Records
---
Amino acid sequence: MAAYQTYLDSNRQRFLEELLEFLRIPSISALPERAEDVARAGDWVAQRLTAAGVENVEVLPTRGHPVVYGDWLHAPGKPTIMIYGHFDVQPVDPVELWTHPPFEPTVINDRVYARGASDDKGNMLAPILAVEALLKTEGAVPVNLKFCFEGQEEIGSPDIPEFMPPHRDRFACDLAVSADGGQFSETEPILLMSLRGICGVQIDIQGASTDLHSGLHGGRIQNPIHALTQILGSLRRADGKVAVEGFYDDVVEYTGEERAGIARVPFEGDEYLEELGLEEEFGEPGYTNRERGWIRPTLEMNGIWGGFQEEGIKTVLPNSAHAKITCRLVADQDPAGIFDLLREHISEHAPAGVKVEVTPLSILGRPYSISADHWGNRAAAAVLQEMYGREPYQTRSGGSIPITGVFQEQLGVDTISFGFGIEDENFHAPDEFFRLASFRKGQDAYCRLLEKLGETDPINGE
Amino acid sequence: MAAYQTYLDSNRQRFLEELLEFLRIPSISALPERAEDVARAGDWVAQRLTAAGVENVEVLPTRGHPVVYGDWLHAPGKPTIMIYGHFDVQPVDPVELWTHPPFEPTVINDRVYARGASDDKGNMLAPILAVEALLKTEGAVPVNLKFCFEGQEEIGSPDIPEFMPPHRDRFACDLAVSADGGQFSETEPILLMSLRGICGVQIDIQGASTDLHSGLHGGRIQNPIHALTQILGSLRRADGKVAVEGFYDDVVEYTGEERAGIARVPFEGDEYLEELGLEEEFGEPGYTNRERGWIRPTLEMNGIWGGFQEEGIKTVLPNSAHAKITCRLVADQDPAGIFDLLREHISEHAPAGVKVEVTPLSILGRPYSISADHWGNRAAAAVLQEMYGREPYQTRSGGSIPITGVFQEQLGVDTISFGFGIEDENFHAPDEFFRLASFRKGQDAYCRLLEKLGETDPINGE
């Protein structure tokens, strides 16, 4: 047994207690009143990195939540690997649906239940512990290491694009490895080939200066809710195809071979619908359910509101109406370009009699993709094959990790996904949990990955 | 000067104090937690009727807020007149826009500011005081009198259709006179020729069993907000014409002469828009602004909601979306029939992948109209001519007073409108007020109207 493995085994209880301590910090980045807790989680990470033997640890301010940096750069001639993760978590509403309080982590049947357990505290702690094990047992890591842990992933990393340019040298590296990810199941590994980009827009419709009596004024002036639904109705066809002019212009159509690859990843449509409590699927004609979620762009309304929303009836003609929309983007769509198309389309479809305002939402991320043949992925595949005894599926995600686009644009590096969450772990939902087996597996896997990457020539990727 | 006039003058201060006392009761019928206050207002009215000399006063329970009855039936051979009004008021939100607290009535410049001052407490108190003046000075009223004051007008009188049939004999009369109404201005009187009917519907769209991640599931299943906007978009054409099949089938088209009569009522379109803070009017092609509001039916969204509505963004694919809609109806549209058309249209336009539920809102009222030549209107016109020195305009209202339809269906009587509110008095809005000059004028006018009606033959209306 490798020395690091013995170290990991003998410190298992301490590592679990540390994870529980980390999970007790309610670092919800979306809530302004939790900003101090996000900062506290950042400090916790910085301290933990230092304790592991990582050097030059610093908490770097951004306009919003901080970034934690650290490095260990004593492997000359070896590639520089930057490990990424995030210490902020999603909100917990509806909190009444949680079996245990979300910030009082509870271990049951070798699973830890808490907000952030899987996404991403359990996952991001694993590589820190792996590095500690290597440094304490071998005195060295087989690559040069940098760490980049952020506190704003769950709100779309709005301050990272501005934060990164002046720190380009500090974060320069050959490859980013994201510990914010997962595997297909307990026994089936994956390589993640792509993430969708994202772009958000808010529409605000303003009518009269106050709410009005719908009897006295109804039929005589434009109703902002009608105006809004008219605009929204123009954005998507009834069959689910986005109807914004130019929306699909830059979309890369996948080849038959790539689509066949997607079809090889197991998918049970009936089970999928049953889990969601639905009877029918729905989506863009000409694509499978997986394809719609993985390689096709979307336009989804996230929220809508206006006028009277309580029990009963108030015969009001409201003076405003609002909607929030996000698009998920695929290669080669540009988020800023898509926002412009949306704004143009909306202003062209703006009905008479109201003012229509279109505002970008802070969320903006480029679609990301990487080849299975990338040297980082080849190393990851080898480790996963070793550990799971089978070749990883090549999967994609419909979600977005905007910082991967920033790494590519600002640092010129690709990101591989190397995490151990599993889709049933209720991230973003009540009763989020993380398998402690995955927590242990992640520690082991990161030791192996760093060793494998240490055998790679960073220039030629061989 | 008539004896009643002297009485009204010498009791002016007491009447004002009584009005203020009445206005202090927060009798908001829409709020369940104010039900006791509505009942308290009903008791106040009952007590005030008794003090005025009205007999057989009773607070009659309904399934919801009570009705107050009283009579004075000592004018054999004379018509029986039922005076109508309501002691409930609208909600006060947004309460922060009120200059004075809505239930602490404040008198400034001969106006009293309070919720319900004009709609309808000030207006409904006037006939009670008129009757008191007549009874105290003449010992009699020149007609048989009944009073019907309700506590649920502002929520559409949902319990009145069920309440009335067993009380048909009690409320039998020759004419109803509604003290819930107004005049064109301080110097220009009106006869109100019609009110629109009303019919309300709620649409509830149900998708998955929980809110979902818009990245992981977006594009793969139906989004309830999209489904809702698609349905709503199908209900009205972009030009404002209602697109529900059969909606206009029973609408009585007005003659050229009737439309010319409407055109004779002064209307300044620019002023109207300026008051509302709007730059353009909007509505069904082929009709003037007044016609759209008075003689054409409408379909207006009163409220819409679903998903994330706060600052920033939450990339949720919501599992439900909702809307409330009311239609204003004109002769000969039937509210129940229109509800059926709406339900049919909505289920025919229900998109795949979601469950769509259509529920009637409690509000339901038949359109109401009366001829200018009706004997009640002739009496009202004579009194108004006397007091204002000019002939009343023949106007219509886009609003609804559902109980007028119940009086017509259940009691077989017509209702004339005889109130003294003026449109600028902010009913249903912050800073509602009532001109005390109108309060005094109403007392005088009701004395004159009852005298005039006493000269009428109830059988022939001559």
---
Amino acid sequence: MTMLVTGWVALDDIETPFGRTERSLGGSATPAALAGALFTDVRILAVVGEDFPDELRRKLEHPRIDTAGIKTIEGGKTSVWGARYSYDMNSRDTWYPELGVSIEHLPPVLPEWRDSTVACLAAGLPSYQRDLIASLDAPKVTLVDTIKMFIDENPDDLRETMRLADFVTLNESEAREFAKMPSIARAGRSLVSDGVKTVIIKLGEFGAALISDGEYFVAPGYPLEEVVDPTGAGDSFAGAFLGYLDSVNQVTPGEIRRAMIYGSTVASFQVEGFGPSRLLTLTREEVDARYRKFRELTHFEVDG
Amino acid sequence: MTMLVTGWVALDDIETPFGRTERSLGGSATPAALAGALFTDVRILAVVGEDFPDELRRKLEHPRIDTAGIKTIEGGKTSVWGARYSYDMNSRDTWYPELGVSIEHLPPVLPEWRDSTVACLAAGLPSYQRDLIASLDAPKVTLVDTIKMFIDENPDDLRETMRLADFVTLNESEAREFAKMPSIARAGRSLVSDGVKTVIIKLGEFGAALISDGEYFVAPGYPLEEVVDPTGAGDSFAGAFLGYLDSVNQVTPGEIRRAMIYGSTVASFQVEGFGPSRLLTLTREEVDARYRKFRELTHFEVDG
């Protein structure tokens, strides 16, 4: 059982009320891979420029992560993502991408990686995500994430990709914008009637909702005392969600719900540090303890 | 078992993307009372002006609501609340109160109502809320709600009242403002360490969180397809929460969690119509069906 992760391995400039980082390890694939590695073996497929520091590359060296798919483009520049958050960290104030080598140089899947059992396609070019799904032998589960940029640029192209995936993750504002619906429930249902198999709408600190033809599941947010940096929360959710599903090796409604809670749990750790720093030291034991706590915090019986 | 409800019985001017109403039945006590009457007998204590239409008074006539405590002030004007909501109905764009008779004329509890078993003090002058709690014989449970106006005007006075109540409800932005804390969890804990017994932070469409010294419970929002008007959601939550607790006649952690879900469930009906219009026809059977649905939508088992 192995999870293929694609997306950006990038440099992040982040500023929150609690501090700032410059050129730190970031991107969409990075937190997804680190989150997934808590549950299963992970392979990362991404491109970086010559300027990508060895020191950051070493941070990705993890017993369960194969980085052979991180290709360095000679003469190229690594993508940089800048984000600034104000006091209410649910929304970004400013956001600027310098896409670097990541858009022109799309790494094909390594031949020996075609047997990956699940694929987590963090934000990336929709046509590339489509090609990648097609190039795998027989993935059990695929998940596609995206960002506003691709919704704005070519929604029809994105829609085509979304229909191919088993799970699509969108954050709340993206879902409302993409579906042109004000309510989360209606946005979700509209995407499903448009051919998306299952959509997961990420609600930031308020949790996540999963909507498919026959299923609706809502999970509240884990109550965090302190959010240091929300960057990458959604990617770590996706990586943990899919990594957990890969590890249990079956996709039942019960397992999908548990995967949602594992995703939320790992995301709640991710936001405790700048970028993916918290994930670098996080253990499965810590995750399981908070997962059980999550249940305690949310459980109720219908009757007394 | 009888629930005393105080607060505004008022006239609402509401404008949402879906329509508008003028001088419709509103106020804080109105949805709280109608919500509570789904579970227990209710007594309303409020003042209105001479201009309060008989037609609206008749809407409050309900087999389980005693309106003998709604006093008409001769020559006075009924309070009017105006609210306008934009596309994202989580926040009000504009909001104006014309307080009418409700601030100078505070109705003392009717002597025969001192035996009320629970008291739901919807938004009102904090010193009046305090006097009212003191004037009851032996209420089993008291709940105090408030609004930004009272937090801004005299936070110390409000704090004194909050410490007297068994439950304090605040919406998210009020809790952050009052506690001067950015995170919901920290704002809640800060209020508790400041002497509030249990605080319920209302998260609008994202549910509610309950925080006390030994308990933390988070409930997601019920996934609604269409929100017509969010006015009064918090008041209907409070009325249903307390009405349910009154009806089961015990205040255990399990019953408090069920009360949170009943509160959220009734609030999810409240927002389906303008003002409290949906509550006027709502039945306990409809509430129980959605309550069970709520469980289905949120339940997960820790292990497979």
